[in-house]
Amino acid sequence: MDEEGTAREEEPSRQRQERGQESHRAGIPWGLAGSLLLLSAVVVFAVQNTQPVLLEFLGWEAVVPLVVVVMVAFVVAVLFDEVLGVFWRRRRARRAADREELRRLREGR
């Protein structure tokens, strides 16, 4: 507040920081750099693991490159994690709502 008692406008950058929206500095954003690094590692992995492997599952047999087996296993694991995460978040939200309702009921007495 200034001398007259009115609130001054804060600097826009300070407002963004308080909301968690910091301005980007010049250069490559860290998210992009990390993504490019991860993509490079995946490409190197794929190029180095092209040898064929015999895959047997429930009586089926197939010869596929090792990189395909590893990538499919990775995608299945990520999907499994996401599905479990959805159930966990719903359960957590329901418990938080129950706690909030109990708090309101206790305050209402």
Structural notes for this entry:
The protein has helices at 12-18, 30-48, 66-107, and strands spanning 52-57, 60-65. It has 109 residues and is mainly α. The protein has one domain (28-107). A two-stranded antiparallel ribbon has the order 1-2. Strand 1 and strand 2 (60-65) form a beta hairpin. The two termini are 40 Å apart.
Distance between the ends:
40 Å
Order of helices and strands: HHEEH
Structural class: mainly alpha
Inertia-based shape: elongated
As laid out across the biggest beta sheet, the strand order is 1-2
- Please tell me the total number of domains: 1
The total count of helices amounts to 3
Mean pLDDT metric = 78
Q: Fraction of residues in helices?
A: 55-70%
Low-confidence stretches: none
**Rg for CA atoms:** 26 Å
How much β-strand is present in the residues? 5-15%
Largest β sheet strand count, sense and barrel closure: 2 strands, antiparallel
β-strand number: 2
